[in-house]
Amino acid sequence: MIENQKIRPAQVIGPLGEPLTLDTLPPASTKRWVVRRKAEVVAAVKGGLLTVDEVCDRYSLTTEEFVGWQHAIDRSGMPGLRVTRIQHYKSLYQRQHRF
Question: Topology of domain 8-98, per CATH?
Answer without folding.
Answer: Arc Repressor Mutant, subunit A (1.10.10)
